[in-house]
Amino acid sequence: MYDLIPRDFFDTDRFFDEENWRLPQLFPIKLSKPALDLYETDKEVIAELSAPGFDPKKIEATVENQCLRIKGAMEKEKEEKKKEYWRKEISKGSFERLVRLPAAVDEKKIKASYKKGVLKITMPKITVAKERKVKIKVTEEK
Q1: Whole-number pLDDT of residue 27
Q2: What's the mean pLDDT when you consider all of the chain?
Q3: Among the listed residues 93, 51, 87, 89, the one whose alpha carbon sits nearest the alpha carbon of residue 70
Q4: Contact 8, 71 (CB under 8 A)
């Protein structure tokens, strides 16, 4: 059976295929948001952010209004004129993540550590005063 529309000489279906190593990458990859896991235990809310290659001193994490904000920056290196890249996928730049926390946390007891490219932020939960229902007795004035 023949195609009604002839195929191009250049296979456009495979143009962006990563396995097509013969062509240099024409479009730079933007630095995407790093992967973030946010979970909770009985006593803590924990965030783990994948940030390999980042200097932990250049990562800023804050908690405000029950939201966690994480910012990071990776400095760009000077480009060497001698290199002729076939592929350039290692991105340099900055990122920012903002997520709402699933529970109230004690801002004074938050701890963060950076190990093997993973930033781990441990936030102890606090118990918020539960809403109480108080019955008010109404009396008639005379």
Answers
A1: 46
A2: 79
A3: 51
A4: no
Please tell me the distance from the alpha carbon of residue 41 to that of residue 96, in angstroms, as a whole number: 25
| Distance from C-alpha of 86 to C-alpha of 13, rounded to nearest angstrom | 20
**Has domain 27-77+87-124 been given CATH number 3.90.230.10?**
no
Rounded Cα gap, residues 122 and 105, in angstroms: 10
Each residue of 49-86: pLDDT tens digit? 998 888 899 899 999 999 999 999 887 666 666 677 77
Q: How confident is the model at residue 15 (pLDDT cuts 50, 70, 90)?
A: low
pTM of the full structure: 0.64
Q: Is the dihedral of CA 43, 47, 53, 54 positive or negative?
A: negative
Domain edges within the chain: 27-77+87-124
- State the Cα–Cα distance between residues 126 and 44, nearest whole angstrom: 9
Question: Position of tokens 């936030």?
Answer: 123
The letter for the amino acid at 95 is F
Smallest CA-to-CA distance from 35 within 19, 47, 45 is with 47
Neighbours of 53 (CB within 10 A): 10
